[in-house]
Amino acid sequence: MPDTPPEPTPTDAPPPAQGGPVGDSGEIILWHVPLSRSMRILWLLNELELPFALRVMDLRSKDMRGAEYEAIHPVGRAPALQIDGSVIHESGAMVEYLCETRGPHLWRAPGAEGRLGWLDWLHFAETLGQHIANLTQSHLMLRDPSTRSHTVMKLETARLGRALRMVEQTVDGQDWLMAGGFAGVDCAVGWSVWTAGRFVRLTPALQAYADRCTARPAFRRALPQEGEPQLYTQDFYELPDA
Ligand SMILES: N[C@@H](CCC(=O)N[C@@H](CS)C(=O)NCC(=O)O)C(=O)O
């Protein structure tokens, strides 16, 4: 057995950028749909006070379907993050990489106390995120109500509510997910909890956690700016009658 892991091969890297500015300038660029998962990354970039360029897209327009964006993100999702000559396509990987390389105070390095909890929360943000994505699709994107499944919407609402209980168990007793204070995983999970509040009634402990998140100046700077597309147009989306 070799003592050190092998050097990464080119296939370990994310897909290379095929055009545009990627890798040329050394600039950090975030492709972002206001209020979507990419808000996690915009919030974290603001927390870290990093210089970056923002490319705002509209989920309902052709912004994310054309060849130009496909060269950045082959499946046309948001976010995409250009950083250090590559493009990353998963918000969880972005949170980890940004904390690892630019914000160790918001990270828990391998071997550090709290590492497992940090990692678990990072990925749990997507357990919440997938239910939010399904509900967003049903409530907002399927404009013809006859194409919606009431059963699926009810199930997703219940599953989201249940998943939130895991966050509640922690934030009922402390301000942030990690005992040591605000961390990068709060950007990932905090966005999920705040957005979940459009589909389920948050308990007092979860609402207080969401309020602590939204009170942060970096969070507020990640909210949609004047004239930017709005993903959600209602504070709360009731389950339609069966
Ligand atoms: N797991 C990915 C999910 C990315 C994703 O699906 N983003 C949504 C916006 S929240 C999107 O781009 N939807 C457009 C589509 O599905 O076509 C991440 O966290 O980055």
UniProtKB/TrEMBL annotation:
<feature type="compositionally biased region" description="Pro residues">
    <location>
        <begin position="1"/>
        <end position="18"/>
    </location>
</feature>
<feature type="domain" description="GST N-terminal">
    <location>
        <begin position="25"/>
        <end position="106"/>
    </location>
</feature>
<dbReference type="InterPro" id="IPR036282">
    <property type="entry name" value="Glutathione-S-Trfase_C_sf"/>
</dbReference>
<dbReference type="InterPro" id="IPR004045">
    <property type="entry name" value="Glutathione_S-Trfase_N"/>
</dbReference>
<dbReference type="InterPro" id="IPR036249">
    <property type="entry name" value="Thioredoxin-like_sf"/>
</dbReference>
<protein>
    <submittedName>
        <fullName>Glutathione S-transferase</fullName>
    </submittedName>
</protein>
<dbReference type="InterPro" id="IPR040079">
    <property type="entry name" value="Glutathione_S-Trfase"/>
</dbReference>
<dbReference type="Pfam" id="PF13409">
    <property type="entry name" value="GST_N_2"/>
</dbReference>
<feature type="region of interest" description="Disordered">
    <location>
        <begin position="1"/>
        <end position="23"/>
    </location>
</feature>
